[in-house]
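FAQ: What does the model actually see?

It sees only this:
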Amino acid sequence: MHQSPSPQEPPDPPATPPREAPPGTPSEAPDAPRGASYEAPRSAPPGAPYEAPYSAPSGAHGTSYGGPYGGGPHPWFDAGAAPAGWPHPPRQRLWGPGGRLARLWDNRALRATALTGLLSLSGLIILALVREQTGTKGFLVGLGLAVLPVPLIIAVFGWLDRVDPKPRRNLLFAFAWGACAATLVALIANGFATEWLMTTVDSSSSSGQADADAWGATFVAPFVEESAKAAAVLLLFLFRRRDFNGLVDGVVVAGITATGFAFTENILYLGSAFVSDQTLGYSGIRSTTAATFFIRAVMSPFAHPLFTSMTGVGFGIAAATARHQRVRRVLIPIAMLLGAMVLHGVWNGSASLGGYGFLIVYALFMVPVFGLLTWLTIWSRTKELRAIREQLAAYQAAGWLTPPEPIALSSMRARGIARDLARRTQGAAAARTVGEYTAYATSLALLRRRAYRGTAGPDFTTREKELLDRLWERRETAQPALAHAALSVPLPRPRFVPHPPPGTMPAPYWPTSHQAVYVPYTTYAQSPQYGYPAWPPAHQPSHPQGQP
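And it is asked to produce this:
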């Protein structure tokens, strides 16, 4: 409704002559329902804006509201307090976004405490169960023998993880999950499955009992154990997605999980073998303990890591798959998990074939599969190094990196030389700074590769800024060492680098200051500002540009 400007003293509303009621009828308000008593219109409160009365058109049915609803003046409503408790607050949900459980789950300290408690409880339970089966002396012997191959296996996976090292907390969680939670689940589930098979299969004879054991080892144990170990890979894939970049990451996480599982399982098997030798009086090289150690720790220390690495390959491929390809991201890990179960079942089933049958399966099946998986992992590791050089060329062209850095950072040998040079010239702190610079540059390159593939999350820009800031803080120490180390690396052969389609990913940030270009190692510029200037920028680095 249109309102006239409010004067200092609003005039009194014009008086409207009351309508005369027919003779013999009580006084009623104009056009009011019959029988309603008449009330004189109230005047506007002091200081209220003046509103002209609304004249209803002829034939309109007047109402007491006035205005567009009918004739008569617009009434004045006194402001009153809202009822208590109105408006009602929204009801808090238990599940879903914003729910109480969701808020609890967002608390990182609470999650870490709950996970630590769960793994500790699982470890105590599995410790009690293993000690109950082996006794104290058998447990100590099994523990001492089972720990021997662990450093070798950890070192191998650590070498594979040197390009983009995972946070230690992730690897510690994977090992603890395999050694405690996964082993506990497998031990309980395999026990129930064995009892069920003993009641189903005729176990009155020794052959029936052997058949039940063979069925359990071939069909039940692979399904239970591989599923329990795959849970750790799945959790890190879902909740530590930033640290999951490709196939190598999946193999490393799965291998560390399986190493923890094999460690606890070896304690049980070796401790039980020692108790058997003590009962039967065997000792020395012909004892059951020595034979078990030779088969599990010498011939096949990578058996469990090999099986679970198949699952890791599936999650690694899913990590490199675009987000919109949801079916592929789900089916590939499931298919590789089934492959891990089949491989595990073949390995367990070969034990029932006798000595020669076991050796044939070991030589003609397990060794080639192990070699193929090793080659695939090393090939993927080499591909990651090449991707680092190609993706960092964009930041080198933008002035964030010096020209030798993409070459040095894509060579493990040059990285080691740079750290050694920094340690000799400036001390251990400088070597750590070079290592941090290398790790941040690697994360930046792999982040940009994920953006090129369409797998980067919505925090790509924020994460890119954070990594560039950390690089810039350490450049004065790291850049001279990397430039010297780049001299020891042969120049890579030119190769075609596919450019992303226009508009699929943002261009790298360009320093807006002309001082941010590559300069000698004596002086360095101040930190550049972020922004998306026009392409090409007003000031370009003096060296050739790389990949846009």
